[in-house]
Amino acid sequence: MLSAVKMAESFIHEDGTPCVKVCGIDDFAVEKVFDCGQCFRFDPVGDSRYAFEFEGVAMGRYVRFAQNDGDNLYIYNSTVEDYEKIWKHYLALDADYSQINRDIAAHFPENSVMPSAMLCGKGIRILRQDPWETVCSFIVSQNNNIPRIKKIIAAMSEKWGKPIKHRQKTYYSFPTAEALYAAGEGEIFALKTGFRAGYIYDAARRCVMGDIDFDEIDRMTFAEAEKKLCEIRGVGPKVASCALLFGFSKTEAFPIDVWIKRVIAKYFPDGLDIDSLGPYAGIAQQYLFYYERYFGGEM
DNA sequence: AAACAGGCCTAAA
DNA sequence: TTTAGGCCTGTT
Description:
Blueprint: E1 7-12, E2 18-23, H1 30-33, E3 42-44, E4 52-58, E5 61-67, E6 73-76, H2 80-90, H3 97-106, H4 114-120, H5 131-140, H6 146-160, E7 163-166, E8 169-172, H7 177-183, H8 185-193, H9 197-208, H10 214-219, H11 222-229, H12 237-247, H13 258-267, H14 281-295
Helix pairs in contact: 4-14, 5-9, 5-12, 7-9, 8-9, 11-12, 13-14
The structure holds a DNA duplex (13 and 12 nucleotides).
């Protein structure tokens, strides 16, 4: 079966901002993509005309993504060219999720929890975020809760990120490693990052010194890349696999956090062989995580 | 008020 | 190689 052709057309928002409407979208649910915990820089837009709308900063730009119940995707502050060059890739709309979902289904027993989890999480896509931003963000995430993670990242961006003006309002990009290194550990600690301040600083220092090179990591085998990332203080298996999955598009990465431990204990009492889950294990992980985290396994 | 939050580090078996 | 505490801070 041929997948639907995605057609993008431009229109102008009533405030004069260029926008894009993308038709023929399958397996994309904006509210799941931005609320499944892979990204900390987007928030729901209050007073939206759409069923779901999220705003935030990504790829150095202020942007909004909106959708009505799995239908067309609306991108605010984007041209068709921007969509083709930036957002299609960022949103992973160039990935064939029907094929991916078939592969995942084939790696789990039919009578397992996976069919329900896939139905529940249908429309989740793994974003292709910036490697540095994901490493740093998931360092911040450890032993922490989502509201505070978002608050800390927003504060870091406001303090050391590049200002991005859009219609009288100023937003901020995620700070570079150079900016954080220059700020110093004490200043990072001052933003209530707690014991993570030293970790963030170490990550920044290694990037600035050339000890960590993201392009190089991208070319490594999965095991090598994971090992390299774990050299950073404060980066262990969980943070490394989140960075690999969300920042390096390594879809075989399978982050094991407290929720996934619960999933395994609850639905796979005999254990789950992570290495046998195939090239899209990380996407399967997201389905399981979303199913348990947001619906408590009831759907 | 004690526990917990999308872990990791260190010390000790 | 595996296991127990402790950790900044904020919220319940």
